[in-house]
Amino acid sequence: MAVRTRRGEPLSLDEIHATALRLIDAGGAEALSMRKLAAELDVNPMSLYHHVENKTALLAGVCGLAISQLRLPPDDGRPWQEQLRALAHAYRSLAQAHPRLWAYVHEHPEVVDRKEGMGAVLRRILHAAGVPERDVEATSEILYAFVTGFVYAETRDHLGEHPGAEDVDRSYEIAIRLILAGLASGEAFDTQP
Amino acid sequence: MAVRTRRGEPLSLDEIHATALRLIDAGGAEALSMRKLAAELDVNPMSLYHHVENKTALLAGVCGLAISQLRLPPDDGRPWQEQLRALAHAYRSLAQAHPRLWAYVHEHPEVVDRKEGMGAVLRRILHAAGVPERDVEATSEILYAFVTGFVYAETRDHLGEHPGAEDVDRSYEIAIRLILAGLASGEAFDTQP
DNA sequence: AGCTCCAGCCATACGCTGTATGGATACGCT
DNA sequence: AGCGTATCCATACAGCGTATGGCTGGAGCT
After folding, report:
1. pLDDT at B191 over 70
2. Domain A72-185 has CATH 1.10.357.10
3. Where in the chain is the DNA-binding region found (chains A, B) (predicted)?
């Protein structure tokens, strides 16, 4: 079952994912090529294809690995405002841990299943916030878009230059409060009963 | 000055931009290649480089052409809410006119100068909305991120399947109202004087 | 008229990409 | 002993952006 490889140990999927993530962190997803990855692993490029279907599957795997790190806030008794803050914070932390990978995620939203995990928690919170039932789904999509839009822009800028973490955090605070106040007002949902 | 070309007329930058936009509308920016574009124009690939520095410059040109279509709402006396709606609407219309090109714009924000046009109008409106001076800049960036995030998601989904334009417009209405209510509340800006 | 200049166009080539195809190797199992 | 199979590798193909350099033929000048 084992073939004498030019390196010691045979390849493993985890090792592939880990090195791919390293390369992406260093140079972005567009700097990742199967050949460079193979070189990094001291392996023939084609060997990768025995562990991974193709490059997009590889990238999906790496993204899934990162997403699985997301720690969703539990449904404790805290007010919905705090729970929403916690959820946004968890998402933002994830993005900040691997900004370049997250750029890829933003550009390929299909790798993250919004129906799962995150989406459910978000809908629960919106329900608690008094959003009318028929608008919970749409509002969930909207807030997801707002947060991803903000975090995308933030991580992008952050890669370029460092404008002072204080300003950034203040911006983040303003953004969150805008959303909370908008939700709390209830003015967004009263077109017809 | 003119060389017998394999087609009749010599190439022009406008013609290049127009056909590039057509190809992008049809298959997205990633389906645009210099060779395909040249074939479409019945010209040798290298001929393009006498009118365009390279591919990214070409894409920037096409984007700029689209962006120049943006009709910024004038500073009439209307309340800031309506002006903000108008601005968002203008932006959204632009994206909907060329969704696939806009996907590229979202993924390469550097092609659009936020300091210019759009940004100035947005800051003016926020000022009228009573946003404290020191937070106008940050809030402008935030709203820009919110709107682009929403429009990006919307145009993306819209490319996949057609979930009914009514739902989409209702979502858009909710999103706008969320922002307006959040701004109107003033709760986002009272950390310290 | 003859000259140069050069804008516009094209042919060739290089290094890069993802991956289809098929062959080599070496272990576990019967 | 021999087979199945998991893993790895060599070669090759089509496509990409573009560097380099050569051709052509009108414009402008002497």
Report:
1. no
2. yes
3. 33-52
